[in-house]
Amino acid sequence: MITLLVLALAGVAAIVLTAIVLGVTDSRQRSAWRRIAAERRRAWERRQHQLHGGPHHVDAWGDEDTD
């Protein structure tokens, strides 16, 4: 019975340790991932602008703010 309890506690400790290591690693690399995401978004926006031209203005027929 003690062996099973020790094995279960070792499993829980391994899961907690893994979560801590992953959290620290993620927090250290967060700025790099944000920079990569920003670069990809700018590239995507450039491609969209090239494919579709400038920004499209849509006049809403129910817009009452244009008196």
From TrEMBL:
Superkingdom in the source lineage: Bacteria
Protein name as it appears in the record: Uncharacterized protein
Species whose genome carries this gene: Pseudonocardia ammonioxydans
Region annotated Disordered, chain positions: 47-67
